[in-house]
Amino acid sequence: MFHKMRNFKRELPKEEVMELLKNGEYGILSTVGGDGYPYGIPVNYVYADNKIGFHCAPDAGHKLENIKFNSRVCFTVVGDTEILPSKFSTKYESAVVFGTVHEAEDKKKILELLVDKYSSQFKKEGMEYISRSAGKTGVYVIEIEHVTGKGRR
């Protein structure tokens, strides 16, 4: 079902792929809607327990319309990059996740992990923010079915 990497010499070891998912700044969530068009949108996320968690509007928007139509998604994280002008190339590292997405069972846990990742120096304020807004926030989880990583270093 999933393609083998064509340029297998660039394939990253599984441990490095998981580190990239853990430490990436943001990812691109790609969905497909009922109109057949793909839709990719950058999102803040957290990687934990072999899942990707993210937040969004609770009940509307292009992303959620597409997820309701088709829960299969692709999620891409790009790590460090460096343009190599004289070599007409780029150093890079990336991870690509395939999986299915659904509403999180433990919304608060995902939101706390997001605060820890992006605003750890404001943990107390983050927890207060979660208490005030968790009911107005959609929280979703990608169940990872397949993941690959590729890099040129």
TrEMBL record:
InterPro entries: Pyridox_Oxase-rel, Split_barrel_FMN-bd. Coiled coil: none annotated. Pfam families: Pyridox_ox_2. It comes from the Bacteria. SUPFAM superfamilies: FMN-binding split barrel. Transmembrane segments: none annotated. PANTHER family: 5-NITROIMIDAZOLE ANTIBIOTICS RESISTANCE PROTEIN, NIMA-FAMILY-RELATED PROTEIN-RELATED (PTHR34071), FLAVIN-NUCLEOTIDE-BINDING PROTEIN (PTHR34071:SF2). This is Pyridoxamine 5'-phosphate oxidase family protein.
